[in-house]
Amino acid sequence: MGTLCRLRQLRTTLGSEFHSWCKLQAPDAARKQLPRIYVTRRIPPEGMKILSQSGLCSIEQWDSDEPVSRTELLKNVAGVGGLYCLLTDKIDAEVLDAAGPSLQVVSTMSVGYDHVSLVELKRRGIRLGYTPDVLTEAVAELTVALLLATSRRLLEAVEEAKSGGWGTWKPLWMCGSGLTDSTVGILGLGRIGAAVTARLKPFGVKRFLYADTDPRPDVASKIPAKFVPLDGLAQHSDFIIVCCALTPETRGICGSRLFSQMKDTAIFINTSRGGVVNQEDLYQALVNGQIAAAGLDVTEPEPLPTDHPLFKLKNCVILPHIASATLATRNAMAALAASNLLAGLQGQAMVKEVPL
Ligand code: DGY
Asked: How far apart are CA 150 and CA 315, in angstroms?
């Protein structure tokens, strides 16, 4: 019976959300010898293909588009050699204990790994794979789209057009701010930050500034971008774009201090992680006119409850964490995570491994 048929049959038997034991690639006898891996979600086909065609593991999967519950996760990781997870799965001591000593490798289908406890992995000698590079272009593209949607008030304008607010052409109606001759500040000049600057350059940006834990002259000199302290980034930027990873150091780094130093015409964009921003402070800054507008692809929590005050603001554009959401990118992420997992299972070098 084909894989899809088997999955469909199981789903019919067990209901729409089930833990499917998808022994996809090996006959029963051989399978017994293979390390088991657990995949915490239905993943894009390119990733599943690599895993199932490898013949290197026996696959168990939470075959749903919705996240596996904590209870199911703890139950199903017991005794696995590899764990293929997503950014929505918290991988901490409890999960690693539940997996037990067989667990050799965790592979996350994401560039961010703030959901994984590095300390606990290191303590147990478990390796971690992740998926940088393959999503850089998609995320940078969406960041620019969000910036333009926010700065040129696109969602507000569409709403006005649909709801009768479009009276006649008026000189000052729906005016936003443009990128030409602007100063753009990047918080976190990594791969994505640099890719964003490359896309913004043709819009006529006058200068790029960046703040980071340390200067990054190699990347910055090519843009060029000037290293400044966070306060300087706030004071001089017309647009601030957050591209840094969420770490204990960056948690809440965008708060009242930053917003109070920004220009009242400035726009704040975040496509990294919601935890980098103090959302209460952002709300106050938007309501009090300390900054002009914000565009967020990430929030804390996710999803942001629909009654959250930020949703009520016209000058806040909120997207549901879609920066990497192109089909090609998601397939590339899934494939890279699968390759990392298989390499880790075999004790080989991963394509992309987080040094612990
Ligand atoms: C990641 O991979 O960490 C991104 O947030 C997904 O868009």
From this structure: 7
Question: 296-348, pLDDT tens digit by residue?
Answer: 999 999 999 999 999 999 999 999 999 999 999 999 999 999 999 999 999 99
Residue 234: CB within 6 Å of ligand 1? Answer: no
| Beta bridge pairs of residue 242 | 187, 270
Q: For residues 37 and 59, give the distance between their C-alpha atoms in angstroms, rounded to a whole number.
A: 5
Distance 81 CA to ligand 1 centre (A): 24
Q: How far is the CA of 111 from the centre of ligand 1 (A)?
A: 5
pLDDT in tens, 1-15: 333 333 344 343 333
Distance between CA atoms of 185 and 269, rounded to whole angstroms? 10
Q: How far apart are CA 319 and CA 342, in angstroms?
A: 33
Nearest to 139 by CA among 38, 32, 241: 241
Residue of 19, 115, 308, 321 with catalytic role: 321
Task: Give 78-87 pLDDT, tens digit per residue.
Answer: 999 999 999 9
